[in-house]
Amino acid sequence: MNIAILQENLLKVLTRTGRIVSQKTQLPIMQNVLLATDDSRLRVVATNMETTEVVWAGAKVEKDGGICVSSRLFTDLVMSLPQDTIHLVAKEGSLHVRCNGVNATIPGVPASEFPPVSSLKKKTGLKLDKNTFLDALTGVLFAAATDEGRPLLTGVKITTQEGTALFAATDGYRLSMKKIKAGKFGDLNLVIPARALSEVVKVSQEEKEVGFVEMTQTEEGQLVFSVGDTEVHTRPIAGEYPNIEKIVPTRHNTRVLVDKTSLLRAVKSASIFARDNANILRLHIENQKMIVSANTPQVGENHVEVEAKVDGDGGDIAFNSRFLLEFLNGFAGEELLFEMTGSLE
Amino acid sequence: MDLSKLWKSVLSELELSVSKATFQTHFAHSELVSFADGVASIGFSNPLMRTLVETRYYSLVKSILDHQAKQNTSLVFVVVPKKETLDPASAGPLFAQTLDRQEISISSVARRLHVRPGATFENFAVSTTNQMAYAAATAVAKNPGTAYNPLFFYGGTGVGKTHLMHAIANRLLATHPEMRIVYCMGEEFLNEIIEAIQTKSARQFKQKYRSAQLLLVDDVQFIAGKQTAQEEFFHTFNTVHREGGQIVLTSDRPPSEISRLEDRLRSRFEGGLTVDVAAPDFELRVAIANIKAEAMGLAVPPDAAQLVAANITDTRAIEGFLRRLTTEVATRHGAVTAELVSSLLNIKNHGSGIVRGPEKSARRVSPQEVLDSVAAYFGIKSTALKGAKRDRPIARPRQVFMYLCRTELGLTHEDIGGSLGGRDHTTVMHGVETITRELSTNTRLREAVEGIKQKLWAQST
Question: Where do you find CATH 1.10.8 in chain B?
């Protein structure tokens, strides 16, 4: 392999794939990225078994070939290089890097050692509007579980029904659901790993010019999300997702309409005092206001009054401030409706 | 051949040939899906691993499998998605808590209030005898405090007054969970007053009853004649009524007939809606038998249910009989049939004599009276019943007489035969069985039996 590529282009690719690479993997090969030529472009692949990311970057290819190098080492090296053309040459099992007077040699592993990635033969997937899709994902991703003990809850459940798509995620402590109009979604009923989806979100946010995300399901059941020159491969989680409809209360006796920005500010401020007290944050609702408060003995306490339209009995309720913050940050609207079924006793 | 056993031994050999990390990542989650005709299909949960093993370890796996299976094999690698399951216990508090919160809270609150959670509008059978009461109760449950206030049910035992009252409470618990509901028996009210006076806790007592938004008093006639209780109840009634709370009362007779009830209370009781809940008719009893049987998980065929309803008039007795049927079925490992029901009905009558309300059995009726009533009802001479003629116009009343003597008076077959001019006990048995069976289908016969019974026992009350 012998190619020339701009430093900034290569760095962009490597920071992206670097997010996938796990340092704790049991297979040493997975700490590497695969660099290979592909039709006069550079193809960089990283995988952690669950999620695989493939990124293409424009490069001048002198000689085809490929090599695996340590992701961390190579990224650090490229980061330190000046903004200039980098020459990459794979020779005798090593990668020689040359850029504006810098010469480096990194030991490599033959490209054939890298786990083979099922390549997408043709793009026949669903074209999803990027903004709608991102909006739905950011509204639920934060609620997914992160512990491996409950694999099903580490995913985002996507179901479509009568022209709407329901996105839902829960970790058993909070549940976030988002309904969007889904003309183009077709028939879906999948649980997709949240980690892979959050990578799709990050890539989509970086690729500002791309207007849509394409989702393809391969014959083997792999899911491939394509955003511009990047593909994120993952596998849906098989199994019975818990019945979430059942745990959403259908009635309420207090309803509060509140401005999101003021509530976010109040929660942020109160959460400082909740930090050392198990993140407990109290909401007190009465005549047209919501009082957000938290206290920790020895640290202090605060009360923030937020104007609100209250309909119903009002009362007191407490939350984990982190859950509230994560929700408010993922929430795109300006006003939010808060309903509760009863006071906390 | 046992697939998992074979694969286990293949894996343990593989473990020796590759590094621990490789084994863990590549093979730990693999399985032998099928093995037939020398073709082994090996499943992996991850397609990446499948390809990796296929390209790198094909020959190694094959040689080990060949050796283990003692034949030349070829391998196929497939992807078998791993089915994840979520243990409800580890799903998190959101699922554990909210799932049963509503059910637990309603039934536990109901239990604390001494309201039977099982008594709901859904399992209340409605017929002409009680549709008025049912309509009033549902109206009150829908608009408490405004529809009919107070709502006063009266009627005999086992007609469903208490059921309706509990159903109102249960419905309101579900729709207005924060409603303050107070339920008590008339006698409990009395006892609590006495206790409050003894322990000088009249304040708590007043607090409890007067703050009620729904006050249910069962068998309110028990407070009649007790001066303090009536006075306290009068004030409680006024307070609750003034605050817009709903009051529901039941009694065994209408307010005007409750003796020694203060006039001011009587006029208040009559100020809302007073509904008579009549004794259930045959159709309703069939429906009740079906509902109760379903609640007990007992499959009762229609003919058997009709047999039960035709022979037992009291709803509680129907419940008791069905319970008995449940044990019978459980011990005999059979199903409920009309035959089983009719045989049990006879045994039951034999043992305890009479299956009826207590006020009816109070009066003793002689076989001669029964004979006269039957003869009068059918318009024949009572001597004809004793005679030898076996025409249908006489034989049928004769069987009715046998049935009544057997079920209502509890006489033995021999005695009945004796009183009919020395008939054989098998004749009597046949007669009783015929009537028992036909009661469920023959309306005219049912009317006849009911009419005679009423005549015989109405005299006493």
Answer: 282-353
